Each structure stands twice: as structure tokens, then as C-alpha cells.
Amino acid sequence: MTIRVLIVDDQAMVREGFSVLLNAMPDIEVIGEAVNGREAVAQVTALRPDVVLMDIRMPEMNGIEATREIVAADADAKVLVLTTFDLDEYVYQALRAGASGFLLKDASARQLADGVHVVAAGEALLAPTVTRRLITEFSRIPAASPRPPAMARIGELTERETEVLVLIAQGLSNAEIASHLVVAESTIKTHVSRILVKLGLRDRTQAAVFAYEARLVTPG
């Protein structure tokens, strides 16, 4: 199956470069481009791409606002956020807005293609630098108990599901979690599905953000 991609960036050279790299992949097709968030929202509605490559800093409507509108209109939308800086102050906001992953613009062609594949498959894509950034960001916030609804939902998880949730938040894939816990990957997939259902979350990225907010993951 061909993965249909929409590229959103206000710089023409960036859009053209990504288009060339992705169209060179046998199972990826760039079906459109947008120069700002407002145009991206309209293009997603018209073209229904499988993955949206979304820049953060753009005129008229930034990538965070666009991501929020796109996900609000379609809970299954998959947005892969791209930025120049791994310390971008908008990283957390983008993930909270519903982005499925985060990738730096200096990523290699292979990393970019892999990122598209991962997000299209419904997995979370959090580069190690981004995971560290999230943990650092939360370490600056005064410690507090999770909001009551969050605490109640955490209580619905089994001990093993909580363990899997923490490993998801640390950026591990299903295969890596399976290896760490010495169980079959299919077992981890089942745990992940149950975690998402119990917590009312749509994907692994939301699960990771939830774990940070609930203080299940702390700087170490």
C-alpha cells in the first residue's frame, strides 16, 4: 500500500527537498504541499493524506494550531512534526495538540522515510533528544499529584500495563519492550491496545504524554 503524504512548510526549498526524498521511496507518494497551517487544514480535508509532515513555525497559522484543528476534525489523522531545533519550545505543545511524532529537519533520507512508515503504521515517533526534552520540561514543573481523572484512569491499569506505559514513554518500540520484559512482541501489542482503551487515548504518543503528566516518568 502506498503511503500518501502532505508536506507543510513555508520554505519552498524544504518542501521540494522532502518531496524528492520521499517520492524516491517505492511505497511513498507526496500528494500535495501547503505553505502554512491554514492551507494545511484545507489540504487535509481535500486530499485525505495518510501522513502530514508539519513544520511548526509558519505564518498565518503555525503547525501547532494546524495540528490541533486537523486532529479535532479527524481523530485518526497522523501528523509528523518537523523542526530545525530539538530544543524547540513548542515540542510539548505539538504533541499535546495531537501530533503522532516529532523529527528534526536534519534527519537523513532514511530516517525521514522510516519516520513516515512508523507514523503511518500508528506507532509513536519520538527521537531520543525529544524524549529527554519532555522529561526535562516536566522536571521544571512543581511536583503535584495527577489530576483526579488521570489518577482514576491509572488505577485501571494492571501492574504490567503500567510498566509497559512507562517504557512507551521512554521511547521504546514494541520489539524493544518485548525484549526488555522477555515476552513475545504480540503480547506487548495486546498490552498497548488495552492501555489505549483504558486511558481513552488514541495512540502511543498520547500515551507517552499521559505518562509524563501523571508523573510515571521522572528525570533520572
What's this model, at a glance?
The protein is α/β, with parallel strands linked by helices. It has helices spanning 12-23, 37-47, 63-73, 91-96, 109-120, 128-139, 148-154, 159-169, 174-181, 185-199, 204-213, and strands spanning 3-8, 28-34, 51-55, 79-83, 101-104, 125-126.
Mean pLDDT: 83
| Tally of alpha and pi helices | 11
What is the strand content? 5-15%
- The tally of domains stands at 2
CATH structural fold name of the largest domain: Rossmann fold
Through-space gap between termini: 41 Å
Domain HTH luxR-type: 150-215
Protein name: Response regulator transcription factor
Organism: Streptomyces formicae
Domain Response regulatory: 4-120
Keywords for this structure?
single chain, alpha/beta, Rossmann fold, Arc Repressor Mutant, subunit A, 2 domains, six-stranded parallel sheet, 11 helices, globular, CheY-like_superfamily, transcription regulation, NreC/VraR/RcsB-like_REC, transcription
Structure commentary:
- The protein is of the alpha/beta class.
- It has two domains: 3-136, Rossmann fold (3-Layer(aba) Sandwich), CATH 3.40.50; 142-213, Winged helix-like DNA-binding domain superfamily/Winged helix DNA-binding domain (Arc Repressor Mutant, subunit A, Orthogonal Bundle), CATH 1.10.10.
- It has eleven helices and six strands.
- It has helices at residues 12-23, 37-47, 63-73, 91-96, 109-120, 128-139, 148-154, 159-169, 174-181, 185-199, 204-213, and strands at 3-8, 28-34, 51-55, 79-83, 101-104, 125-126.
- It has a six-stranded parallel β-sheet, sandwiched between helices.
- Helix 5 links the parallel strand 5 and strand 6 (125-126).
- Helix 8 crosses helix 10 and helix 8 crosses helix 11 (204-213).
- It starts with a strand and ends in a 7-residue tail after the last helix.
- 38% of the residues are buried.
- The mean pLDDT is 83.
